[in-house]
Write a structure and sequence with these properties.
4 strands, two-stranded antiparallel sheet, disordered N terminus, two-stranded antiparallel ribbon
Amino acid sequence: MRFALLDILCGQRGFIMHPILRTTFSILIVLQFLVVTMHDWLNIPGWTHGRQVQAAIGRRKFLLATLANSIFPGLAVAFIFLFRGDHTPSFVRNYWVIYCAVTAISAVMMWYVPYFFGADDKTKRLYADMYAGTKQVLPPRGDNPRPNLLHLYFHGLFLLTFSFALALRVPS
């Protein structure tokens, strides 16, 4: 006996994505692409201080990092437009899951490992320089870097997008 969700997702010809699930994932992955690639270019006092980030790592390195960080989410978004029909190849659905998982794991490694377990002095100074003055809601843990409120929202987005990618990967 199949579950109701699988009945919705699967048709006689194999895997068919539910339109609401697909549309929601499409919106989330585009939003994720935008925040990953653009948030450090903006200056919104208390939220994101792009000038501080650029000053801390240098303009050239900042530009190269932005270009490198846009490749994988850009491909995920391109697949949304390339495979708009009912059937999306399994390699595309696999890519979405892998990309979203890597993004979530990267957020953990960049933010929560230093927050809970500490970081070297160079990393602490870099985070302090880049994110000074941003809104903080997590309690300090010594002088460990901590994710600011904007990044907490991003991490929620990453987890939500990952869960939708998993849902789209449900086999027929």
